[in-house]
Design a protein that fits this description.
Strand order of the largest sheet: 3-2-1-6-5-4
Helix content: 40-55%
Number of strands: 6
Number of domains: 1
CATH topology: Beta-Lactamase
Distance between the termini: 86 Å
Largest sheet: 6 strands, antiparallel
Structural class: alpha+beta
CATH architecture: 2-Layer Sandwich
CATH class: Alpha Beta
Length: 195
């Protein structure tokens, strides 16, 4: 069976994008910068307007942990039926957010430039999360974009996991350096006191 040239080209672009995303994750020092670069890669393939990640918190709310736009940063959402459906492992393509109670609970400035949204779940280090892509066009997302986002979702989970671990390791190294500096200072003061 022969794969049509345009499908072969699309598959090659997707594979290249996945490899580029993994390379960013492996080599990055900054969680936010790396994740934003991963979103940029995904944007080239899906052509969404904006994207952001909502992560489940201990109190059951969802908070925005990374976004391609300041508009979606620092959001806290109370999950309704649709978001709970997504968090349970099902992607959801909302052709018009004005019919979604989950979206209607958000301020007008958040909904202003969003008409359709694609939601895909993934596992993150501290709980469930979802990657949301938005478009100002009604019914923008199609089945192939849903499938592509579902293939990218594990990369998003791996990015959060790897980058969080790098951040924890960096914090531990900084704490040890501070402790070593304090110990050296205390030893120096002790030597000076004996002299």
């Amino acid at each position: 069976m022969t794969v049509p040239k345009n499908q072969e080209q699309r598959l090659r672009e997707e594979s290249d994008a996945l490899l580029e995303g993994m390379n960013i994750i492996i080599n990055s020092e900054s969680t936010l910068k790396a994740f934003k670069k991963v979103l940029e890669i995904l944007k080239r393939l899906i052509k969404f307007d904006d994207a952001f990640v909502l992560q489940e918190q201990n109190n059951g709310s969802l908070s925005s942990v990374v976004s391609s736009s300041p508009q979606f940063e620092n959001l806290v959402w109370s999950p309704g039926a649709m978001f709970k459906h997504v968090l349970s492992g099902n992607s959801s393509n909302i052709r018009n957010i004005s019919y979604s109670t989950d979206w209607q609970g958000q301020p007008v400035e958040i909904r202003r430039n969003v008409t359709s949204a694609l939601h895909t779940p993934f596992s993150a280090t501290t709980g469930n999360a979802m990657l949301i892509c938005t478009s100002s066009q009604k019914g923008f997302f199609n089945k192939s974009q849903i499938q592509l986002l579902e293939r990218f979702a594990p990369l998003a989970g791996q990015a959060l996991y790897s980058l969080k671990n790098k951040g924890l390791l960096r914090d531990e190294i900084n704490k040890r350096k501070q402790a070593e500096g304090s110990l050296e200072e205390a030893l120096k003061e002790r030597r000076n006191a004996k002299e």
